[in-house]
Amino acid sequence: MTFHAFALPRRQGSLPDVIGPAPHGQRSQIAPVMVQEELWFRMRALPFTYMAPTLVSVSHARALHLAEGFGSAPPERFQRGREFAHLHPHHDGSLHLSVPGSVMKEVEDARWGLPHPVQDALLVFGPRDRQELEVVWDLVQLSYEWVTTA
User: Which InterPro entries match (predicted)?
Assistant: First the structure.
């Protein structure tokens, strides 16, 4: 199956300051807490997913795992175990997603995120407003599709 990003608009403004590789996250242009919570509300409602401690991020990150027995993607599509996404704590607001390499490149070119310097994951910058929330949500859904299909 070929995955590619939708009509990804170019992210406006300068890039946020990023640190990493461990921890890898955003240090400026932090998403408002209520926008982060709206994103998390949507993320945790994805079918056959559950919240569990992250296996790859800082201890206060909220991670999504795909339930065993659901989906047919190979293990290498996940960050570790069945974890495919995590949202960093409020002071950061960015998230890491499992996505195909072609999508990683499109997202970087459109200035919405950066590949993790060590792991096979995409850092997506936290949405600064409701319009950006819709773009980030589309990327989360693409990640979900990536880990649920062969």
Answer: Luciferase (IPR048273), Luciferase_dom (IPR040841)
Whole-prediction pTM value?
A: 0.94
The residues, ordered by sequence, that sit 6+ positions from 141 with a Cβ below 8 Å of its Cβ are 46
Task: Copy the structure tokens of residue 1.
Answer: 């199956």
Q: Are 22 and 61 in contact (CB under 8 A)?
A: no
59-73 per-position pLDDT tens digit: 889 999 999 988 889
CA 149 to chain centre: 17
Per the CB < 8 A criterion, the answer to whether 112 and 70 are in contact is: no
113 vs 3, 47, 51, 69, 148, CA distance in Å? 17, 25, 23, 31, 22
Nearest to 149 by CA among 96, 100, 86: 100
Residue 5 has pLDDT above 90, yes or no: no
CA-nearest of 123, 134, 122, 141 to 43 is: 141
Q: Encode burial over 98-115: b for 16+ CB neighbours within 10 A, e otherwise.
A: bbbeebbebbeeebbbbb
3-state secondary structure of 85: strand
Q: CA 30, CA 22: separation in Å to the nearest integer?
A: 18
List Cβ neighbours of 91 (8 Å cut-off, separation of 6 or more): 30
